[in-house]
Amino acid sequence: MFDIVGKRYWYYLLSAMVVVPGLISLILFGLNFSIDFTGGSILEIQFESSSAVEPAQLKELFAEFGFGDTLVQSSQGGIFLIRSKTLDSATKVAIEDEIEQRWGSFTELRFESVGPSVGGEVQRRAYLVVAMAAAAILIYISFAFRHVTNPVRYGACAIIAMVHDILVVVGLASIFGVLHGWEVDSLFLTALLTVIGFSVHDTIVVFDRIRENSRRYAGRPIEDVVNHSIIQTLDRSINTQLTVIFTLTALLLFGGITIRNFVFTLLIGIISGTYSSIFNASPLLVEWERRPDRLIYLLSFLLPPVGLAVGLFLLLRGDRRSKPWARGSLVAAWAGVMCLGGLLLLRGLIPA
Amino acid sequence: MFTDRRRTLALLGLIIVLAATAVWIDLPGNPGIHIHLGPINLDRDIELRRGLDLQGGLQVLLEADLPPEETVDAGAMEATRAIIEQRVNGLGVSEPLIQLSGSKRIIVELPGIEDPERAIQTFGETGLLEFIDAGRTFLPAGTVVATTEQVAPTTPISPTVTVTPTTELGTLSPEPSLTATEAGTATPTVVITPTLPRGPEGPVYQTILTGRHLTGANMGFGELGLMEIHFQLNDEGAALFDQYSSTHVGQQMCIVLDKEIVSCARINERIPGGSVSISREGGFSEEEAESIVIRLKYGALPIPLRVETNRTVGPTLGEDSLQKSLLAGAIGLSTVTLFMLLYYRFPGVLADLALLIYASVVLALFKSIPVVLTLPGIAGFILSVGMAVDANILIFERMKEELRAGKGLRLAVEQGFSRAWPSIRDSNFSTLITCAILFWFGSYFGASVVKGFALTLGLGVIVSMFTAIIVTRTFLRLIIDLDVVKHHRWFGV
Hints:
- The complex is a heterodimer.
- Chain A is an alpha+beta fold.
- In chain A, about 75% of the residues lie in helices and about 10% in strands.
- In chain B, helix 1 runs antiparallel to helix 10.
- The interface between A and B is large, with 70 and 72 residues.
């Protein structure tokens, strides 16, 4: 029999190895937001004669119209993707006429233009949406598991697994944004929320079994109950995972290029979702029962203000048993501040 | 046992009817529903609606172009939307979408539009205001007319046509008349409710002036204390109008907005200088005057708009995406079917059958609601296939456990379903929560792709709960009743 709970620290390590680079990239480079969130224009055109133009020439043309920081990408078949500041209709027509005059006729495949005010508003609302989804799910899980002894634990562990998946996906988007120029657009947000939904979906399936087994095997150590539940649901987890991987891989390979990043994000997120529900969320329930101090230290490290508050609270309470905990959370908070500070410093040193 | 069996059979009948209906709706070239039974008239074409990213087209988000501190009147916004709708209908686009989004934005979606630039000009700019020469005919407000749109050279023109108005003259208010006047001041605040256009009929009228000749309009009280409408013309307009009015005394001149008569008035005298007033015996009612002034003033739109976002997809890119994602969907679906067959054997066959019913029911729902299908929407649908299978996998795994524990087939099947149900319910509910939030987010700023995904995934999840549980369970019960299953091996145990 597999002993997943016993080897949980190895699985936490694996998660950290995926999450930490993404987090670092996120702090150092941020996200590469698309025009959906920042405003701007994308013009995709295809020339009839494929070798007539160089990207640099198009860039120059846009500069002549006062659009200095324009990005031009060319791909096969004389297709050019031009990203610029928001173009109004009149300027766009003028530029297109000029392009046609200089390099011959072309077809406009796509044109998107978003005003900067809408972009900013959408970005604010996007954060709100992610927060709302998380809150709604926490409430729902606490409700669904209300008959269990510690319902909030289940909700909190599901949320931790969910934050793990968000970090995997967002970190990945940041890394790919740096390496391949991937953009965070409204489709990415859609993928992210779907991943959130799936992550919780998977977690609930495992938790449901734990809920059932903890009634049936009351009195057995929690490690055994959790491990047994994971093993029992493992077939289902793997099979469901496989069917989703089949469908998404088909979309990835044969679907159009426009949703390729979207499908890839979904695929990574859903794999991460299953992983986190088996190897993070469920073992964390054990952790909470056995070594809650470690959870508090981790939380203090990730969110230093929380660590500071918890540490001070425990110190002030002044009872003998809570002293080492107070010290631990303060140290963790301090370490967290140092790491974050170091990264922010590094970010300042990186040339824009 | 007997009643149980009858219930199972009844459910089977229901499922067969449902599946047959779904397949009938899904069939290409479905004639739609046309029922004419006494007072009941039901006409409904059933076809799959493709979103902009699949068939090409234009999506524009228009925003009220007002200073940020100014509040936008909801009624005025609705009137603006209605006018835009009227103009879009004039473009001859099939299935346009024009809706308010928030308090100061309007979304316009025009699938399959050929010339997006021209379309934006047509509906986004302040409308086409004209003054036409109606000869001796009084045209009632709301009449749709054809005009030359070109202002004639400043040579005297004689009326070319006369028509009989379609409405009875007896029901009309007294004829308004035109006289020269001093400019007055008044600011209108009320909005108009435009009527829907009717097909143009009859002759082509000569345009005398257009909106660009107009410099201002307002309402005020005339000599007798009666409500009048005043408007002012620029130099060119004044010259044109002077010329025209001198030769057309006693004839009708009509204000036309987007080819629809707003108001007609008789010319009482030659009007030089470009300041014109429209008066009527007994005066205009305040509402009527305001309505006309607003239309004169703004051309058409009570609220000026600017294009905030603009998305255009060429038809080739759209068509290509559709073909590819359909292929991907077919491959994904058949891989899943094959997997279920190989891994779960006999129940796998039933699950596959349930999956096919699932796919046809969802497709039928898409067609009949109708759901506008976008590329992410298809992805949502394909993803929901995975979830539909997930419910069955949960159940079958549970059944296998019960079989291994030595329970009989019938008991194992029943317990597999009842024990798997809480986790199916809870997990799907959390997905539905995210779908609802996504849908709300997508509606907010016109991201129809986000909305489409949320809608298809959500629908898929709901239908999948039905097919995975009711349909598969009915099949399984029936098979067990028939007593053909001899070995647990058939269940992959």
